[in-house]
Structure formats: C-alpha cells, structure tokens
Amino acid sequence: MLLEVSDLHVFYGRIEALKGISFGVGEGEITTLIGANGAGKTTTMRTISGVRTVTQGSVIFDGQDITKMAPHDRVKLGICQAPEGRGIFPGMTVRENLDMGTYVRGGDAAQKAADLAHVFHLFPRLEERISQLGGTLSGGEQQMLAIGRALMSRPRLLLLDEPSMGLAPMLIAQIFEIIKQINSEGISVLLVEQNATQALRVAHRGYVLETGYVVKDGSGHDLLEDPAVRAAYLGG
Question: How many whole angstroms from its chain centre is CA 98?
Fold first, then answer.
C-alpha cells in the first residue's frame, strides 16, 4: 500500500470526528471514501494532509510514518490536495495560482515549464484564462485550477475533496474523465465525493464512512452493486 491509515482518532474539541478508521490506498489506484455529510470524509483528508492533529493511530506513506509530519513536508513527499471548496487564490491570476503549486517542491525552470504544459494539456481552458484572476473564473474553471495547482506539486498521491461540487452534469463528466487520465499516468488518487455513483464507477476500491467509522469496504464495482450501499447512497 502507498498509504496506510490505521486506527485513526481525530477530535474537534471534545467531539470525536474519526473513531478509529483504518484503510489503504494502493500504488496506482483510485480509492474513494463515500458517506453522508458529517461522516468524517473531509476530516480524513485534512488529517492525511497534516492540517488536523491525530489523537491516536498512524498515517504511513510509502513505508514512512508521517503521523506527526508538518503539512509542507508531506507535500515534498508527494501528498497534494485539491481541497473542498477549491481554495484557490481569487486575487491572483491563473498562472500565479499554478506557480504556487511549485512553491514547496522547487525544481528548475524547465521542469516547471513542462509541468505547466501538462496542466494546460489536461485543462486547455486554463491556458485561455492564464492572465485572468482566479476569482473571476466559473466554478468549473476554479475546480480545474485547484486540481492543476495540486498537479504542479508533482504528487504521488492526489487528494481530491468533492471535485464535482456545484458543477453542471457535463462538467462533472469531464472532471471524472480527467481523474481517470491523471490516474492512468501513475498518480494514486484518494477521492471524496458526494456523487457516490460516479466515484465508485472510477474507483478501484471504496470505503463507506458513517459517523467516524468505516462500516463497509470493497471494490468500486462491488460497492456499486451492493444493495445496502445503493439504498443509502446511490438513490436505490
């Protein structure tokens, strides 16, 4: 496993948000976490990124214990996140937002130019908007920018938190095709997504969270066909 989360407990004040969850992300795989609002999905992502403090348990990345590692050091290892709500810099241009993705990573100018070209290949719209302020982009363009910025950090593990939130159906389909393309290039993906049907269709493996617990896991296909999962999360 590239990422191994074991017996993870996380609190917000006195409220226990994660109650001993364990799961893994395989090298080169798409893994999805599904569940209702408040299940602990975003808390899990923020904990893997290092933004939330672990009370108990461990986070292992490529054999290294990163449980207490600072967020920027996790980025250097190759863990990068496109957060829920996109989190772009609205007063900076598209180019400046993308450049921020290379801030911790470093690298020479030629390498950064190659990465920028790759992002523009995935998201041609961003190249068209290169000098436009992030805050003036549409919701779909901002989501592209958030993913593109994460890719500029050269991730080994890409954390995507609600990438389809607020998008039109046509754009949702486009974002999921891009997720599959990113994965086909060897990048492992951990995906949190309210659109559980779409998430399970692209995922190699999935985990179902309920109120801070993992209550079910299996292949994306098996969970997609599971009657209990269908009834609870897939509209029957």
Answer: 17
The angle subtended at Cα 78 by Cα 73 and Cα 82, nearest 5°, is 95
> In this structure, what are the phi and psi dihedrals at residue 71, rounded to the nearest 5 degrees?
-55, -45
* pTM for the whole structure: 0.93
pLDDT band at 233 (very low <50, low <70, confident <90, very high): confident
Close Cβ partners of 45 (under 8 Å, ≥ 6 residues apart): 33, 81, 83, 84, 159, 161, 190, 192
pLDDT in tens, 165-210: 888 888 899 999 999 999 999 999 999 998 999 999 999 999 999 9
Q: Can you list the domains of the chain with their CATH numbers?
A: 3-78+155-233 (3.40.50.300), 89-153 (no CATH)
Which residue, among 74, 61, 50, has the nearest Cα to 27 in the 3D structure?
61
Spatial separation of the C-alpha atoms in residues 35 and 208, rounded to whole Å: 6
Q: Which long-range contacts does 223-226 make (Cβ < 8 Å, 24+ apart)?
A: 223/34, 224/197, 224/200
Whole-angstrom distance, CA of residue 165 vs CA of residue 177: 16
